[in-house]
Here is the input.
Amino acid sequence: MRINKALADAGVCSRRAADELVAAGAVTVNGQPVASPGLRIDPVRDAVAVHGRAVAVPVPGARAHTLVMLNKPPEVVTTASDPQGRRTVLDLLGQDFGAARLYPVGRLDYFSQGLLLLTDHGELANRLTHPRWHLPKVYHVLVREAVPAATLALFSRGMILDDDGQALAPAPTRVLPAAPRPGAARGTLLEMTLTQGVNRQIRRMCQQAGLTVLRLTRVAQGPLALGDLPEGRARALTPGEAAALLRAVGLEPGEGGKTSSQAPAPGSRPGAMRSQGPGAGPGAKSGGKPSLKPGGTPRSGSGPQVGPKPGKASGSGSEPAATPGRGAKGTAPGGARRRG
Here is the structure.
């Protein structure tokens, strides 16, 4: 996309006026002054600014699917409904993402917390939960006991679970400095990286090693990071995050259906989404020359946030995972189940 067209699409000015802004030295891409109005940019990767102010350049065609990151609190069920009336992850979203039929991708168990993806993109959900792709998931695990080096080595090289004899892939584990918080439980903070979908894997590993899990938080999945998203809040992925996630599982943006990365604006038609520009989130690069091809791995960034909305759940069983399928209530939009 040419820079003058990008500015016009973003509603900054006409293309002719954009040419004048470029000639005046008022336009930068990734922090570098633009010398030619014909410069081509990538609206996903490149950060555009006029007079030092970020410009949100629309991503062409990003209007159909919705991708949402939730910071799941403990004691919330990762399913679309619950027969015991417990809060579900969909209760936290309420109606803030319009008429999109969102389903959790994979699972976090009842007492675990942190990053959880929800989407109506069936092919993406299928690939994210399929063992072939093995997107790493990073967890911060607070345990009560001191953890010996031998246990760290055992986790990191792979182990066999005593309860069912299952062989686990290596789960690189290290001790993190635990920042003291008023009233917080004391213990050892571990960072563990998993590439499998074994049910309650971390809790079973720790139990076998004689460790008591006090808190378990997923902080990253593939190219996505939880960042400072408050507990119980949700936000749409930025265009850069959405593109990086799709590419991490072998999809291109627009493949298997176009992808939306923002909740609908107030008063808009339900289900009609508008994507966010690179200047507003981590999908934009902060420096260097404009790129000609999309790509890159974003960090967690800003996006529209919605607070928890209590509501009574109805539907499945105790600590259930979303069962894959297409179209049935309480099921994921596609693919095999993978448990986190």
User: Anything to note?
Assistant: Helices lie at 3-9, 15-23, 89-93, 122-128, 149-157, 201-208, 239-248.
